[in-house]
Amino acid sequence: MPPVIHSVRDSSAVGRFPTVTLPFVEDVEVEKEEPAENDVNEESACLRWLRKACPCCYKRADDDDATETVVTGVDDPDKENEGNGEKPTTEEGNLNELLLTVRSIDLMKSKTGANLLEHHTNLYQSDKFVIRRGQTFQMWITLSRPFDPNTDKLHLELKTGPLPAVSNGTHIIVPLVEDLEDGRWEAAVVQRDDRRLKLSVNSPPTAVVGRYQLTVETSCANGPATSRHDPANDIYMLFNPWCEDDSVFLDSEEERQEYVLNDVGRIYYGTDLQIGERTWDYGQFNNGILAACLFVLERSRTPNSGWGDPVNVTRIISAMVNSPDDLGVLEGNWSGDYSQGTSPTVWSGSVEILKQYYESRGTPVKYGQCWVFAGVFTTVLRCLGIPARTVTNFSSAHDTDISLTTDIYLDEEMEPIEHLNADSIWNFHVWTDCWMSRPDLPPGNGGWQTVDATPQETSQGIFRCGPASLSAIRNGQVYLKHDCAFVFAEVNSDKIYWQKNKDGTFSQIYSEKNTVGRFISTKAVGSDERQDITHLYKHPEGSEEERIAVETACSYGSKAAAYSSPTAEDISLEVIMEGDGPRMGENAELTIRLRNVSSELRTVTLHSQLAVMYYTGVHKDTVKKDTVDEEILPNEVNELAWELNYDTYKNQLVDQAALMLTLSARVRETQQVLATQFSFRLRTPDLVIKPVGKAVVGQKMKVEISFTNPLPVVLKAVIFHLEGIGLLPGKKIPYADIGGHASVSFTEHFVPTLPGPRKLLASLDCQQLTQVHGVSDINVEDKSSATS
């Protein structure tokens, strides 16, 4: 990856910083002024004094012993005599013959070789040397003559970052030792072959991750020499979940295959009763993605010395995947107007996004929403070696006042007071879980940690979130870092309703204890099934342990004194949705159920209000309001049919076709107050992808893509988007208009590049309809097996 060089010194800094050399600056040949012939024997008085004071260090140019350090090129020994045609001077030739120099370095980068296979890095589609820390690797060094351990010395030097220093672990001296020991930088000779040495090199499990520049230092009786840096020999160091001493160690091979090596996943969306899913290409091994991920770290301007700590690295990436503070990868947009970029629903993977950010040298990509932020975050973490999974929380609360409750304010007529309702409940919210130990927290808080790149609230002044320990969240220990309180409110806050009094104050009238944090979902290990991981975030709803956790958490919130008031319970209220729920373009039907468990007649005044919502829980517009009085006989259940006509909502919908029905009620006889909010979405159709013929690497194949418009209106300026790792890069296909209720199909050709099971992803985008996508499993045969 070409380095980004930033000015780190100016004239005003002279005297403040030591003089340094920036190792990532490209080598520049400096033309030296040749002395005139009659000046060869002249030297300054200062040099003559130094020669007298220390004759061993300041010898004359014609002295027999050469003591200066020579920088030698790392060349192919078979091409020693090739070059620019210039012959070295006699003095230079004699000096090089006397010194022990490096002629070439072979890092043994073969995809089928032991280095990359043992380090589980053979899947990276690049010619870079990618390894994991805390593990040995092998390399060959070819010298100018055979190595004599009695008189010769050799060590490796590795440098990373703009200002490498031995003191902070960014300038590494790797000594040559007899026997390697775990946990330290060392090298040992394991094989000799004339002028060639095979070294086994060990790195500690705490090494800084990133790109290291490699040089070899040699010395003998005639003086020292240093190999010239060759970018082809740069070493890319990653975290190592296979190493027991690495803080990201994960002891299950099945989970390592899923959370580190799987480059395709599932992301869930919708509502808790209408869970949708879409396939996402993480693409962490695609060519150029590792360079892009390291570029994201470099753009953070954070010290490289902190890049060995996964807690610090995940906080950096959490901030850098969004753009408000630091011009990070993605610009968020929830407005519905995406004319200046790409609609968030169009993206099917992270590769296009990261490549566009890298190739533009740090211009935020337009646009993202929570699942896009999370998908990109998961890609970066897996690419760097940190186990990660994308997680969806349904009915996800957004607490804005650190109360650890979700507060709904109503006026005297039980109508929502919109300007006070800053807290919101998103239909769904997507973030990332990552795996690591937490030595910075009390024991027991390691394992899965929540990190979130969607810019919701700031953490220590920057839009980022986590890592927050799932164990701490589950037990209400919201005082532990980082951002446990915010994540706790997202998954386990109580929803409290407040009614305005005549004097302007508010009284708590009702609370719901099990509406936030439902069906927390991620892709299952080894399959495409949805796995419910709610139990990792909180104890079973209503259990004694769960109530203790909530009370513990809320005692640290801003409304601890107003926590949870009791209410009468002889009337209950719930909303029921049949099957998968209403479909886009059709009338929506729900059932409101009122249950009377008392032995007396109850009269209920029920207020209903339907609002079009952004999936984030932000109110767009109210489209329907009703009030009814309902009498309920003792120990009876009344079911009320509720319907929303297509004509009522057709011009009001936004991205996710999300709707929220708010119900509030008062029982005339007991003054009991009931309230609930029910979120649902209008389901969209899938794209149907049908492969035609056999899929073989290097041979053209085709697929048929079909779609039926569910709406009675014309879809304008439709664009299809296709992509698939190993099948084809991201491609946009303009399709013009699609008539109301019309069915369309088209054929697309491409040439697969990788064998094995692959997934082709497709999505549709237009102003009238979003969140339409499809996936097809395609098994690609290798060219050799297809012909046999």
UniProtKB/TrEMBL annotation:
Residues 80-90 have a biased composition (Basic and acidic residues). It is found in: Membrane. Catalyzes the cross-linking of proteins and the conjugation of polyamines to proteins. Responsible for cross-linking epidermal proteins during formation of the stratum corneum. Involved in cell proliferation. Residues 68-93 are annotated as: Disordered. One of its GO terms (cellular component) is membrane. It comes from the Eukaryota. Pfam families: Transglut_C (PF00927), Transglut_core (PF01841), Transglut_N (PF00868). It comes from Poecilia latipinna. Belongs to the transglutaminase superfamily. Transglutaminase family. The active site is at 370, 429, 452. Coiled coil: none annotated. Ca(2+) binds at residues 492, 494, 541, 546. The lineage of its organism: Eukaryota, Metazoa, Chordata, Craniata, Vertebrata. Keywords: Acyltransferase, Calcium, Keratinization, Lipoprotein, Membrane, Metal-binding, Palmitate, Phosphoprotein, Transferase. InterPro entries: Ig-like_fold, Ig_E-set, Papain-like_cys_pep_sf, Transglutaminase, Transglutaminase-like, Transglutaminase-like_sf, Transglutaminase_animal, Transglutaminase_AS. It catalyses: L-glutaminyl-[protein] + L-lysyl-[protein] = [protein]-L-lysyl-N(6)-5-L-glutamyl-[protein] + NH4(+). GO terms for biological process: keratinization; nervous system development. It is a lipid-anchor. Binds 1 Ca(2+) ion per subunit. This is Protein-glutamine gamma-glutamyltransferase K. Its EC number is 2.3.2.13. Its cofactor is Ca(2+). GO terms for molecular function: metal ion binding; protein-glutamine gamma-glutamyltransferase activity.
